[in-house]
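Thread title: Can someone regenerate the structure for this chain?

I was given the following input by a collaborator and told the matching C-alpha cells would be attached. They weren't. Posting the sequence so someone can regenerate them.
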Amino acid sequence: MTIPTPAGAQANATNAAFRIGQRGFARAVPAGYTTANTVKCAGFPSGRFSGGQDHTTSHTAMALYKSEITQFLEELKTQKPDLEAQQRQGRSLLWDKDPIDLEERARAKSARVAQKPYVYSLD
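Best answer:
Regenerated them for you:
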C-alpha cells in the first residue's frame, strides 16, 4: 500500500518503508527489506526507526525521571509537612465510622416490633 504524497510536499520527499512491529508500532525498515506488513510512507527518511526491540533508552534513565506533578507534590510536602495529617483528619470526618456497640445493637434488635404480614389488616 502506497500513501500518495500530499499536495505541497517537498519534491525530494522519500518513500521510506515502514513495518508494523510485534507491539503494533510502525518501524522503518532498511531499503530492500520487505515483508507482508511493510508500508511505504511519503515524507519519511529511509532507515531504521528507533522503537520496539531496537529501543536504546535505558530503564535506569527513566527511573530517574520525575514528572512536573511529582515534583510539585514533593515540594508541597516539604513546605507543609502536616498536610497529610490534615487530609487524614478531614477524611475521618466524612468517611470513618465509629465502632459498632454490640450491646446497643442487641438491645435495639430485641426492642424491635415485628411487622404484620399485611400492614393494612385490622387484626
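Confidence is low (pLDDT under 50) at residues 8-14, 46-55.
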